[in-house]
């Protein structure tokens, strides 16, 4: 919670104004029963209309002051709570942007979404309510006790007995509710996760006839959330009847003992009316305590969850020497004794990887699943850092090139093509922000997707993704490739990105790569693709076991021969 309170720092002046006007409003409220007592004792009982009008006028004037105070306080409370909420949300967003991939594994997407939306909203609401009511309510209770003692200290003592009992009870409830609301937020995460999984796998769920099972998962998690929320709300709501019971007993006590004092002449009717008035105001203030407990407990749980994201240590990449970007690079790529393991495991994924790729060379990388092909790719744009060894671009250690500058020169087409909701043009333009129409069309033509786009109802302006047209796997792959092409990168990384293309389209695409003259690394399972590359690297258990032209590998590698035979048929190797 303290962590979150630091976000209120920039709004100190606004908070001071809101609290000041709230105190004015509160003072007026505390003073009102005192004036009413005087109107009764000095005006009504003495039949002095002058006093009634004078003090009555004062009462109306003070009410107008309280009204103005309430409006000003609401204005500031709304402004401060919304602004602080925006600041928290932006900070969380920027933190998440700096997350490493292991952080994303620790915080699932669904929980990050809940933290950025629901949790921040709960904090926002609590800031607003605190500035308007939550600070005011305890002050009103304390002020009423003091004023009651001033008006009649013997009867005021009754409040000194009952109020601590109520506060003790509320403290007990708060401790329990805190834990319960933390569980509620966790359950909300689960519902969001189940929903997200369901929506993203909807086709698979239908094909595998898993609707009923998935419906069951959703119902279970939603029921669980309902059960936990009801338990927490019940706990907070039960405060109201308990407070009403104790405070009504106190009012009866005031009337009982007050009657005795009035009979004895040691108290006036006005004093009794004032005390009952204070008791009623106290009851009102105390009864919103249940609500305060609920919101504060929820906000505390949310603060912990938001704090967990903000306090996550993010390690910036070691951009050792901040050399300015080489405006143009040739694209020579060298790996020297590179080894790598993922931060959350100790198993080495790549070991002793060595190669030197000339600028403009096209390299096909073959290897069994899990042999480390994608991992090797991820080291090039520094998505991960190598444990040992050196990776060089044009002879320069990439550790010495600023990450953003390095990535300027890399085009990456991941294994899973991903399209954003937007037009076809926007999807390609995503690779280069200020790309011209001519550049976009050139990239699309080279990626063999231009004609498909032209056949769509609105050409490049056709919407894809949600509310738009759906594309086939191969079409998505080609849009994804066009997105990388439009950058005109020096290094192009294609991670099995032609797997869904037919042989003819793939051939044309590989030919287009030739005129493109960028250094290309292409992960593939197909020997037909590998044959068109300048060289082939065979990756086995995280290391390059053999590298050379297709013909050289046929001679040198038993495994490569076997893969070729499995794709072209036995005996094919001699004439391939
Ligand atoms: N984020 C990760 N954290 C920990 N280990 C990982 C991670 N990603 C991959 N691995 C492990 O690293 C090894 C190499 O994975 P990688 O994805 O590089 O293989 P690949 O050759 O590209 O496989 P495929 O052909 O199936 O895509 C595998 O054993 C995999 O389990």
Write a concise keyword list for the protein shown above.
alpha/beta, ABC transporter transmembrane region fold, 3 domains, 576 residues, binds adenosine-5'-triphosphate, ATP binding, elongated, transport, four-stranded antiparallel beta sheet, ABC-type oligopeptide transporter activity
CATH homologous superfamily classification of the largest domain: ABC transporter type 1, transmembrane domain
- Structural Rg: 36 Å
Query: Pairing-aware structural class of the strands and helices?
Result: alpha/beta
Question: Spatial order of the strands in the main sheet?
Answer: 6-9-10-3-11-12
Keywords: ATP-binding, Cell membrane, Membrane, Nucleotide-binding, Transmembrane, Transmembrane helix, Transport
Organism: Sinobaca qinghaiensis
Protein name: ATP-binding cassette subfamily B protein
Subcellular location: Cell membrane
